[in-house]
């Protein structure tokens, strides 16, 4: 597969065209941002760890019949993926209270919800990804109703699979963000699943192994990400 022009550069990844019009190469950078780009840093080797972690998770999801854009890991920082057209929504699944919902609803961090909470945000940097509901998403034409039903159904299936997988390695899946894309008439899982996009706490000590280490200046950011990769590798 030949890597051609860069199509897009995001906060944590670069995307390149390839000689196959249906396929892209995603390159994982070491850049970290938080609070809608207000906090920035470079975390050495983060891209390598996130590429490995996301590749393991996407493979696992595919083995469990979740359709994703992932084709293969090409190198330490690169993945070959299907070229999707991204649905401009961030889909958040929450099992325990943490992050923005704690502030918004005055909750206690770590509180377990009676059932998973699904939220959607409009993916728009200049508006800082505002939280919206199904009516906004459909009325604004961001997504078709049947696509949204399918996205929610898939997000809950992914939550069940990943909750179980992380539990096996002593990790609580607190919450995570998903993105979906359209590919040949279907909506499939896209983007990444990594400590940048999940909250992952140790089951025994409640130690945080995710991007909150960066957001909250807790230190040992890369060590947290490495611990997640090490434990995931035990699974195989
Ligand atoms: O910040 P908030 O609590 O709403 O985030 C919920 C989950 O979604 C967290 O795991 C966070 O890492 C992830 N997220 C993300 N990208 C965003 C917003 C949230 O990966 N733009």
TrEMBL record:
SUPFAM superfamilies: SAICAR synthase-like. InterPro entries: SAICAR_synt/ADE2_N, SAICAR_synt_PurC, SAICAR_synth, SAICAR_synthetase, SAICAR_synthetase_CS. GO terms for biological process: 'de novo' IMP biosynthetic process; cobalamin biosynthetic process. Pathway: Purine metabolism; IMP biosynthesis via de novo pathway; 5-amino-1-(5-phospho-D-ribosyl)imidazole-4-carboxamide from 5-amino-1-(5-phospho-D-ribosyl)imidazole-4-carboxylate: step 1/2. Its EC number is 6.3.2.6. Residues 7-231 form the SAICAR synthetase/ADE2 N-terminal domain. Pfam families: SAICAR_synt. Gene3D superfamilies: ATP-grasp fold, B domain (3.30.470.20), Phosphorylase Kinase, domain 1 (3.30.200.20). It is an enzyme of class 6 (ligase). Keywords: ATP-binding, Ligase, Nucleotide-binding, Purine biosynthesis. One of its GO terms (molecular function) is ATP binding. It catalyses: 5-amino-1-(5-phospho-D-ribosyl)imidazole-4-carboxylate + L-aspartate + ATP = (2S)-2-[5-amino-1-(5-phospho-beta-D-ribosyl)imidazole-4-carboxamido]succinate + ADP + phosphate + 2 H(+). NCBIfam families: purC (TIGR00081). Belongs to the SAICAR synthetase family. This is Phosphoribosylaminoimidazole-succinocarboxamide synthase.
